[in-house]
Amino acid sequence: MSTKSDVISRPGTSKGLFGVLQYRYLLKLLVKKEVRIRYRGSWLGMVWTYIKPLTQFLVFYVAMGIFMGMGRSGNLQVYPVYLFAAVIVTNFFTEAFGNCTRSILSNSGLIQKIYLPRELFPLASLRVAFVHFFPQLVILLLGAAFTGWIPDIKGLIIAFVGFFALCCFAFGLGLFFGSINVFYRDAENITDLVAMIAPWAAPCFYPWTMVAAHVPKWLLELYFADPIAVCVEAFHRGFWWGATDRAFQFSGSWVMRLGVSLLVSLFCLAVGELTFKHLEGRFAQEL
After folding, report:
1. Alpha helices, DSSP H only, in 73-146?
2. Rounded CA gap, 287 and 275, in Å?
């Protein structure tokens, strides 16, 4: 008579994202490994976490804020905070998406030798992006406070929900393209294209009203179906709007914008996970 302990399960079977919860310690080790590899042989180390966004900020501020006069626009008071809030959001997305896409190939040695839930690798890459995002967020908070930012609960909740949706969006895309990248290395080139387009396809340097003035309403709605654009505006609401005279009007209802963003992000996460689970059984063989 067989019991539950006698049931034989197929080795190497993943429970998907739910199975990752059992490997929290291993996830922590993978995050440490990725951070150490990233800065191995680097003299400045984690200081690069500050240098890159600050360099981008200075370049964009000179080009858009001074040369193009965006900083002199009456609608964009405290333009440096408006710009930096968008820079750290797009940086987080491009790093998380790109690293998740490359995570399976970069850990091919481990995948070929031992079994562990494959989702751990893109999830570790997402966690590393968090490690780099946090110091940038601290700089944003300090800069906003210095310019007279008055925080409010509603704005902070909007920023949190927008960022949560962006995390799901980046991770879902990373799962999808990370699994495809094992078989077709063109996926990495797609991440480079997305990284190039992302800051311009969201209201990072300009107000949303400039988009509304040049596109039909249906295209504007499609523009705001992008979780990156919504998260950028959510950070503007959370960390920039409170430093202005609050005359700036955001586009549409926040409940609608965040709701659509969450739906799009969760859909991408579901598609990414299903694709990943469908292909992961062939990862070791292909690698």
Report:
1. 79-106, 108-113, 120-146
2. 17
